[in-house]
Give the backbone structure.
Amino acid sequence: MNNNEHISFLEHQGKYKGIFAWIFATDHKRIAFLYMYAIAAFFLVGAILGLLMRFELIAPGETIIKPQTYNGLFTVHGIIMIFMVVIPGLSAVFGNFFLPILIGAKDVSFPKLNNFSWWLFMFGSALAIATQLLKSGSPDTGWTFYAPYSTTTGTSVILATTAAFILGFSSILTGLNFIVTVHRMRAPGMRFFNMPLFPWSIYATAWIQLLATPVVGITLIMLIAERLFGIGFFNPDLGGDPVLFQHLFWIYSHPAVYIMILPAMGVITEIIPTFCQKRVYGYKAIALSSLAIAGVGFLVWGHHMYTSGMSEQARWFFSLLTFIVAVPSAIKVFNWITTMYKGSIDLKPPFIFALAFIFLFMIGGLTGLILGSVATDIQVHDTSFIVAHFHYIIFGGMGFAFFAAIHYWLPKMYGKMYNFKIANISAVSLFIGFNLLYFPQFIIGIQGMPRRYFDYFPKFQWAQVISTIGGVILVSAVILMIYNLIMGVRKGAKASANPWNGTTLEWQIPSPPSLENFDSAPIVKENPYDYN
Amino acid sequence: MDNNGSHITEYKVLIRILFILLLCTFITIEITSFDLAAFTVTAALLIAGFKSYLVLSYFMHLKYESLLLRILVSMVFLLFFVIVLITFIDYSFR
Amino acid sequence: MSEHNTHIDEHRDDEASKLGMWLFIFTELLLFGGLFLVYSIFRAQYPANFHESSLELSVTIGVINTVVLLFSSMTIAMSITAIQKKNKKLTLALIGVTILMAFIFLVNKYFEWGHKFEHGLYPGSELMQLLERGHHLYFSLYFFMTGLHALHIVIGMVLLVIAYVKVNKGSIKHDKFVFLENGALYWHLVDLIWIFLFPLLYLIS
């Protein structure tokens, strides 16, 4: 491999010039960058909205914002973070960049469609942000748009649901693209069971994106029709049933939780063997547990609805299935730990993030079981316990996995290396800030602090103050981390093709990769994590 | 999924399928005009299921596609069926 | 870039396109699936109302539209056979007939809906709000489901018109017809959904 002749995809001169070379790009790597920059910007917006809420909660009563503004804040924070950051996050950024490379392909199956997905994503995001600027005010329903309130509130719900619909469509097309890519574009000799595990998790995720998203799509259309024509599906006055909305919504939105976490698990599964220099333990169990999570994940939506007036039978049924879906997740955790056993562990920044992920994900997962059991859920339902739980899963899980992934793959994506010391400091302070922010919410949640309230009893103030301090530390750590990464990309040392001594296909090609990834057909190993 | 010498369905076959489909439609109309209580819906849905099987296999060429695709299609129908079933665990016991 | 253009044909993968179309059809099935779920729940709650309301619909129009759709499904399937047998003229004729059938379906639907509108029965109308609960839900579902279905008919028509132009230009031919195949798949999807809509809306007792 002669580096002088190598032209990376970043330098490659295509049909268009300047910014058009990016926004009309069909190269999966460029599209990954497009998503990454957009998502990073949305993430910062969402984080600032979150921080505003934390400042409001620093003392009981009104401190800096009005109650209605607070309602708008948590709704838009939710919409941005869920639909524009976490759901596309790992699969659209790292899935786009590394799925084709890891399976030895030149690109995804439908590159133009891939670019179109990004445009849809940006269009939907623009609509979602526009809801903030309208005269009718930002939606105040929470990101779940529960009927009947969402059918009657005067705020801009129609625009927000349209935005969610378009974002969903973009997600469907990305999923469709990835499934076809995995089926049709694998390198010669690569069977399903010698694919690396990140593609496995992206594949399972793509199926959820494809099959669950249409259900929420039609639900949002029904909600819009309810508002425009009074079709009555969710209106008890006209014979409808508001709980039906919750059913339809969670038929999508529970599987959507796995759209968020499955790729995160995939990233961690790539990082751990590399930094332990050891073959991953239980390859097939990890691969199949991704599919199992995707499958069973479709059948547990009702555990979001224990207090909504479902029948008793439905409640115990959903509770039972919820405990079953915990099994494949636990399989993965055990396999990660076992992979580390007797490995030659190298505490580089990506691995530190991965360790933080495992710790936080376990807290999130175990508190999830408390919520999965009907009796305890009724006690803590709609309290800040829930808020803490899903932030441990979504931010502690998916968020930390995203940070781990960017520290792991940045040298491959840009061909530059960041500063390890600052990366370590940011990782540790993120971890501290995160736990300070969310752990107290578990405690006051059990004591009865409701979620989505802008006011509270003075006895909860100690925890809210700790949380706010944690929030400030967390946001500062994020800024430090991003600063370090940007400095790394701009001024960092040149990264070699394989800085971590990894074994998967992306480490066999130069950093950054060339336009078509592989100059010659890649050599596919029997086991992708073969360190011997 | 490799069938490069892709299968050609003869016109005759397609015409025959159309006749069966039309026949099924008229059977459905006849059945539903009797009052057989719950059985009417079941019968109508079973016939509709059979009709969609014909459309999927012959018009949509599923019969000549790979096993993988056939499995995927049946999984999608199964998934929908299971979701309806689970939702009714709530609605039938309220 | 010139080098890239020569690659495109080499990379052509009809199986991938077809798989992609099937996956898209899955999403469409689940999109309608959500509506069928709503239908089944309300029907289970208001069986008598649903029966009474369904008597308001004209079974004759329903039957005509069913026959039209089934026939068009066959003609578009035949057009694939024709293109495989290199019979361009017949292919064009068959696609043309399919588009004509789609148009007839829409005209029928127009009269069916128009008739209801004349009687003040349309989504959001005053009459709708006065109806009994089950009747109201039935007609809401009727307009929602048939409306969404009609929208898919229109999308299908557009696809078929593009296919017609492409066959005429010769860019769809006997060894390269995946676009026509995918258009046909989409058209069959429309038919597939109608197979369930027809008995559930027009024929319930």
